[in-house]
Each structure stands twice: as C-alpha cells, then as structure tokens.
Amino acid sequence: MYNNDSTSKECVWIGVGIDIKPEDSYYPEIVKLSEILKQQYGSNYEFSTSNPPHINLYDIDIPKTNLEKASRSLERIAEKWKHFSVKLASIDFFKHRAVYIQCELSNPLRQLEKEIVEALADYREGCRTEDYWQPWREYNQPQINNRNKYGNPHVLIRLLHILRWDVLRPNCPKPFRKPRGFLFQQS
Hints:
The chain has four helices and five strands. The chain is of the alpha+beta class. The protein has a single domain (6-165), classed as Cyclic Phosphodiesterase, Chain: A (Alpha-Beta Complex). α2 packs antiparallel against α3 (107-120).
C-alpha cells in the first residue's frame, strides 16, 4: 500500500522536459498542427516563451525542501546531454481525449529519460501527484508498479510525447480525427 505523507510537508509539482525552439527543424510542423487543432476544435492554446512546445520526460511531486537538490541533479544530467536527434512519429490522443505527438524512442532519448527518473524519484519522500491516483484512471500492472516506484505510471514504458493539446473536452461535439496527409519533417 502507498503511504502519502504529503500532509506533513509542502509538496510541489515539477515537470521535466525538453523545450522545442523555433530554430528546431520540426517546430513549424508543431505550430501547423496547433493551428489545425485550433480551427477544428476551437482551442485557444497558443505557444509562448513561457509555455513552449516541449517533450515531456517526467513529472512528479516532491517536497519543496528538495527542489534545490533536484535542480542540481538535473543540471548534472543536462551537462552530459547537450545534443541528440528526435524524430516525430505520429499524432495520437489519450483515452481522455488529449491530443499529442509521439516521438520515436531513440536510445539516447530513452537513456536520458531513465537517468532523470532514477535521479529524481528518491526526492519524492511521501509526496505524490494526486492526478495519477484518480479513480477514473486505468493502468496495467507495469504502470501501477511505476506509479508506486517512481511516482509516475507513464515513465520508462511508453512513448514519449510532445506537449498535449487538451482541446477535446468531454462535451466537445466533434470526435477527434487525425489530420490527413500531415507529415513531419524529420531532424
């Protein structure tokens, strides 16, 4: 059984990812997809300097007192991983109707994710991301194991993805259809 000891400490959510910059070769394709989704579903989502497109690697809740240690760990990891290629694989959506772009899992990308997860998981100290414990969420056994061990059910066993668009609200009258003929430029 999981013991959530977050009542005795102030827990904060941290998200770890890789920003995608306008000079990256596939940035125009991501902006194009965002515009298509905006037209089809009325999303008000806009990229900005404060919320750029990014590849999600790991998110967890940790005690506020561990933020500095977590930051130093991430700096050490980032120093080793300055350059590598990312290929965009496909457009898809989660069961709860959030749209995302899948990244092909290269060995460097998978290794980077593993290093981050292993470096940060021990900083949780009883904090947990409550969203991952909601009763409507459905997980297989490996995901349950990862949620218990790493605080996140999706790490190390799923395709990494680029920023999701929560444009498909449950009351949205249109079903999601992947845009036809949408091709990614590979980098």
